[in-house]
User: Which sequence fits this backbone?
């Protein structure tokens, strides 16, 4: 098994466990990860997911060039492109997912991180989409998502040169929300995950959806959709519980309804 899933209360920790290969994705790991997300989506006790890599050197160094890429090339030649990488890069999950970037996030590894809602990095992390160096493009969301995550000039530079940047630069350009000091990455990530898990699930879901919609909508349309989402949350049992808990000075007990 090259994927480990650990439960930490309402948080599910998913670890790519191929440290000897830089946590690169071979065909088996690709399939294993793709099968992991639906199970976590169905589990109502899971409110937040964390994705990380085993060891201290790599989050994920992308596709295993000797194993996965030839397999993918054969599928594409047969007209059977799976059109996703590890089941994460095409369809957003319904639950928040945080990338705990504990080292190199290169190629498909950065594409997996870009598919997450939050990215928190260790101070030794590195980032890059070096696919052009082997005659490919970052076609599992890398081109599209990087261009939306950072200024166009920076995305163009990284995508055309294959340049690799460090954690500090990633923070400066807004690619990650935080850089954790040595040895504190998982602590910082789990703190964020638990804060999210304690919030109303409907409010979290509606907020994520509103942010994603705003990227493809006019300001007026995005504001209209945001208000519709507000009305839905206002009428939820969670909102009633949250307001009552505030007035009674106690912790809310959200049900997701």
Assistant:
């Amino acid at each position: 098994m090259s994927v480990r899933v650990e439960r930490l209360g309402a948080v599910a920790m998913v670890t790519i466990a191929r440290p000897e290969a830089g946590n690169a994705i071979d065909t088996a790991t690709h399939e294993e990860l793709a099968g992991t997300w639906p199970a976590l989506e169905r589990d109502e006790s899971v409110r937040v997911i964390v994705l990380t890599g085993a060891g201290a050197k790599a989050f994920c160094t992308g596709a295993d060039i000797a194993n996965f890429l030839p397999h993918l090339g054969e599928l594409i030649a047969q007209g059977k492109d799976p059109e996703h990488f590890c089941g994460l890069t095409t369809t957003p999950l319904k639950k928040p997912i945080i990338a705990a970037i504990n080292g190199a996030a290169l190629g498909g590894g950065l594409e997996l991180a870009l598919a997450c809602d939050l990215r928190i990095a260790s101070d030794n992390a590195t980032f890059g989409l070096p696919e052009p160096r082997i005659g490919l493009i970052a076609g599992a969301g890398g081109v599209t998502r990087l261009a939306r995550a950072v200024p166009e000039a920076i995305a163009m530079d990284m995508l055309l040169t294959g340049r690799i940047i460090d954690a500090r630069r990633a923070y400066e350009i807004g690619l990650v929300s935080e850089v954790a000091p040595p040895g504190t990455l998982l602590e910082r990530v789990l703190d964020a995950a638990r804060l999210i898990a304690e919030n109303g699930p409907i409010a979290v879901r509606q907020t994520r959806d509103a942010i994603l919609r705003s990227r493809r909508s006019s300001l007026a349309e995005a504001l209209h959709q945001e208000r519709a989402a507000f009305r839905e949350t206002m009428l939820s049992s969670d909102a009633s519980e949250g307001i009552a808990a505030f007035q009674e000075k106690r912790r809310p007990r959200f049900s997701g309804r």
Notes: The beta strands are 3-8, 11-16, 48-53, 58-60, 97-101, 104-106, 118-122, 126-128, 165-166, 178-180. The CA atoms of residues 92 and 206 lie 13 Å apart.
